[in-house]
Amino acid sequence: MNEMLRGASRAVLFLLLFQGLGGDGSEFVGDGRDFGGDYSKLSGIIIPGFASTQLRAWSILDCPYSPLDFNPLDLVWLDTTKLLSAVNCWLKCILLDPYNQTDHPECKSRPDSGLSAITELDPGYITGPLSSVWKEWVKWCIEFGIEANAIIAVPYDWRLSPKMLEERDLYFHKLKLTFETALKLRGGPSIVFAHSLGNNVFRYFLEWLKLEIAPKHYFQWLDQHIHAYFAVGAPLLGAPDTIKATLSGSTFGLPISEGTARVMCNSFGSSLWMMPFSKYCRGDDVYWKHFSKGNGGVHHSYHCSEQEPQSNYSGWPTYIANIEVPLVHDSAGYDAYPSLSEVTHENLTSMECGLPTQLSFSALETSDGTFFKAIEDYDPDGKRLSYQLNRLYHSDPVLNPLTPWDRPPIKTVFCIYGTDLKTEVGYYFAPSGKPYPDNWIITDVIYEIEGSLFSRSGNLVDGDPGIASGDETVPYHSLSWCKSWLGPKVNITRAPQSRLSAKLIEQIPGLQVKGRT
């Protein structure tokens, strides 16, 4: 992911410099909505991605059997030395309560601030380069003469759901003030650079802003404060990797077991923020609900077009999750797992008593809660994740983020993402015979590779592959959703990279790039 970000950042920097943020005052051609002022007055605001902000301790925690303790302002995310020497202490500082998203009673962590919070997660001679995120990009900006106050980072606690970001940290209030301060400081609007989950954060901010500003002033505020938006590696329709993390864990390359990683990830409310969902299903219009019925107890039900039942996989290349579960009957003759028969009976591929049964779930069934409800009887995280999904997303008072995103009302929008890399799009799970949290194993993985689907063993798989593959983390289907935003003026540039086979820069109505990469 860091390699993808660095490659995409080169393209972003090219466009950034071309627009004149470096202070040369050069012009560019727009669609009639271009910024008519001095481009040296623009600011760049960076919204980092998942796990891309440093977290620091805000507690004093003694760690037995370890010479290293946690003191206020010590790095938690990420300090690999303490992770290796005092993993139980480290977990206390990083885990959240899965139900109310509060800190551990003995330790709490909070996001760091400023550019240093997003440049290197674990600074050091060896660990620094391995955990570098935005450092190289900031260095390029300095080399090209961009002013120090022109680049602003807005770190956030990436463990929290959008609702909790505002409830606990007032993050979206602070983000609004950041845009307003940048305008007052430099005299011009800002360019937003969002990476990965940062795009989801920015989307939520735009919806939250609708409820904070009078309707007649909303677009005026956007035009005044935001000139352009760069969506880098945006999981616009989610990412199947989220499902893998909920069942088998994602270690982020850290020296921890997958079971430990699973417990950690499933305690974060944000882990479900990038769940894959159907492009054919939308939620209720919350904006008008606030003016008509109020927002108390709002539940965003899904409204699907007729294309959803007609599509095989909710528009995705294949089923997101395929899971083997035992179909067991108790001695009295009743189903031992009633919720399974209620929710997913039609998905059963075998009804033989006592034999494993494979259930398959589309993107819609993962995002609407069907998947987690189906595994509640087999996994303690099933109920916890169902609770999080309903409370933090389906019942969010501003937006159900697990719905397709229409073109944001920003003057100029760029989509930048990697393509043609081997990317996971579906998984097969089976019981491992081990206790929680290691109770599932991945028996097979489905990859998209340049327009085809293959299993982990290399066999060709049936499905609906796209014309290209994704960036190694997010499938092409999700990355390229911004094509649905296309208008009359579009430039598409493919920029080959040394490691990445290509970078696709898609300009959505606004700026016309007068140059070559």
From TrEMBL:
GO terms for biological process: lipid metabolic process. Keywords: Signal. Pfam families: LCAT. GO terms for molecular function: O-acyltransferase activity. Residues 1-23 form the signal peptide. This is Phospholipid--sterol O-acyltransferase isoform X8. It comes from Cucumis melo.
